[in-house]
Amino acid sequence: MLSLFVEQGAAMDRTFLHFQVPPASMTVFDIVSTSIFTVFYDKLFIPLYLKLTKKEPKTLTELQRIGIGLAIAVVAMLASGLVEQQRLKYSDGSKKEMSSLSIFWQTPQYILVGVSGAFVYVAQMEFFTSQTPDGLKSLGIGLSMSSSAFGSYICSIILGLVMKITTRNGKPGWVPPNLNDSHLDRFFFLSAALSMLNLGLFVVCSNRYKCISLEER
Description:
Blueprint: H1 2-10, E1 15-16, E2 19-20, H2 27-53, H3 62-89, H4 107-130, H5 137-166, H6 184-208
Antiparallel strand pairs: 1-2
Helix pairs in contact: 2-4, 3-4, 3-6, 4-5
Pfam family, one: PTR2
InterPro entries: MFS_trans_sf (IPR036259), POT_fam (IPR000109)
GO molecular function: transmembrane transporter activity
């Protein structure tokens, strides 16, 4: 999905002071937000959570944190779609791809993706390692990493299917080379809908899952 963010950024106004911002450099907001949130999670987020809820459990479980991360991912996709609508609004409608909308309008979506990752990936790693015995810890870590890779493949498959369907009858499709002829916003909104469906399925499965305590065995 970040590759589409880069394509979107390449079609925006990349001017900052007296130089051009490389579209791929915007991923720094993703990396920095993930790092900052991971560092301050225990010091800021958990105390705030305890103050607001005042109930057990005193900390969020791994599954709850994954659910929060998935919900934030939905918001990130919605934000991306809204930015794309504005990008198209500020384009001149010609074959020239550049829009007058600043690339820094992408900052919120990158930050949201980073915070989502901080919730999901850390909790996912903890979940897989805590629910596997000592002899299978490496397998748990592998499952955690493979799930992320599997998600990337699924995203590529969905994009391919969308392009195959939307390019029928000579239409440019939702994600053509010239984004001014595209409906990239629709793809982002479709991603938000699929992410919402994924969140719903996750909530159902996580509510039925019974965590095991390996220390008691």
